[in-house]
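sanity check this record:
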Amino acid sequence: MAGDIPVRGAVVISGSEVSWRFSRASGPGGQGVNTTDSRVELVFDLAHSRSLPEHLRDRALARLAPRLANGVLTIVVDSERSQLQNRSEAQRRLARVMSEAIAPPPPPRRRTRPTRASVERRLRAKRRRSDTKRMRRTGDPD
């Protein structure tokens, strides 16, 4: 489990840059619920990571700023009863979060104009709706 974590393309987070903390999870667990440390906290120091190139690290730091505490990303998993499964899930979540954070920005939106036919359809529908409401009015129809 302490192996490298593939993120996106050739980007891989070294297992040595990730630290783990374990504690007792709340919720179901059967007989071992009070004795097993199945809750997992994966701690990744993004600000000082050597696994990411500088431009990707800066992009990730900017995008993940609300989730970081002093440049450290913490992922907590306690959804499974097994510590091993929670560790696997924490690694998957780290890979997904980092992949989204280092993804290139989307291309800028190109402004377009509505087609003449769509403008005519919209105006025709507005006229039809207006006529319907005018016909519902009480009093003189003109």
In short: The chain has a mean pLDDT of 87.
